[in-house]
Amino acid sequence: MRRIARPLLAASFISGGIDTLRNPGPRVPQAEKVVSPLVDAVPQLKNTEQVVKLDAGIKIVAGTLFALGKFPRLSAAALIASLVPTTAAGHRFWEESDPAKRKQHQLHLLKNAGLVGGLLLAVVDTEGRPSLAWRAQHAPQVISHAAGDLRRDAELALYSASGAVRHLASDTVRDATGALRGVAAGSAHSASSALKHPATEALKHSAAGSLRSATEHLREATDHLRERLPAGS
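RE: above sequence
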């Protein structure tokens, strides 16, 4: 619906702006009463005709943007700002003495008022999105919800990180304990082996020496006994 309504609403502004640019002369005397204070206040403005052309350019540019749906709210506001002084300058029905012309200017003024009403609806049209006033009113709640979500996400992330750290520390301690136990067991086995073999060899050598010594003493005692016995017995 907006794609149809916007071009229809903008058509009169674009057409009137092009016509004014091509032939600004007839509109200059009508705009003189409204524009002359502005020309006197702004040094960059040379004369009323320049202001009339500038206003026509605004109508063409803003009307085209509005018809295309580009910046519709801003372009509608620009068209209102252009239409109000144009209406005040061109349709001063209270100054007309001729009833027919007076009636004609009243009709044009009411038509322009209707255009302003349509443009005001376009200015506040958010196309289903929340307006700035609604956003400002609900901003504290939105911020509060966002802060709560952020805090909850931070707590979850912290809990997950702490759990990961605990698991990593537990695995590291367990691996280190196992490694230390393995090293200790290996060292104890090596020490036991180193101590066990020399003691066994020493015991073997000691026993062998004692046996040889006892054998020699027994042999000597036998020989000595034989010498003392009589030869005939």
